[in-house]
Amino acid sequence: MTIDERVWGGLLALIETRISGGAFGARFPEQCPDGQGPCGCDEQAFSRVLLAEVPWIEWPLRAGEVPETPVILDLLEFCASAVGEPLEGFFHPFYRHYHLSWDREAGLAAFVADVNLLFRRNAVAYQLDDVGQARRILPQPVAETLGWAMFQTGEEETDRLLEAARSRFMSPKPEDRRDALEKLWDAFERLKTLEAGADKKAQANALLDRSADPGTALRETLGEEAVALTKIGNSFRIRHSETSQEPIGRSEQLDWLFVRMFAFVRLVLRSSGRGG
Q1: How far apart are the first and last CA of the chain?
Q2: Which of 7, 30, 5 is nearest to 19 (CA)?
Q3: Global pTM?
């Protein structure tokens, strides 16, 4: 999902009106020449810090030059971190401006609502959350499963890997989702050793025996799926970077692999009383 020129134009208008209206003065205040307090947004300070924090952005922003979607999302997060609702105080007659203070909570809520409205009206599958962080909008069953997953494997590192995989998969940035996939496959390998057994194979079989009755067709299917997932991890560039491994090229392929593995992990965790 990419942000096209039309949506970019709308987002640019939201940002420009807040610059001119002083909303980003909450973080980058312009000071009254008489030294009597802030009176707006210091656009120069805003742009300098923006270029440092989002080095892939071009300044000034232009409607006809659409940045890459991850860069736009970084820009929106930067703006969300700086925005506030300007509150007019003393009117300074000589400079014909008001001295300002800012309601950070109200300004952030308004900015998030305006951005999300543009995304929603244009079927863009991203949103800003309540604190201004960009998130993907996932299919409802996937979103519910990921949103409520709790991990209690009894092994701290496995829990850490699973939680990192869950949270990073919801990121709009492809590199975060690739990292999520790697961590999920690492957790899968550790899960194979959680049950008692003489060796890793016996331990893995004991875990699957808790997921389906031994001797049933479903148990056989789960065993085949575990083998297939192990083969995927060894054949594709997920956990390792050997030249013989095939890279995963497209975002939708990465999503499919993550959901497939997460569904399997969730089943064995819940079946063995380990959450998920």
Answers
A1: 28
A2: 30
A3: 0.73
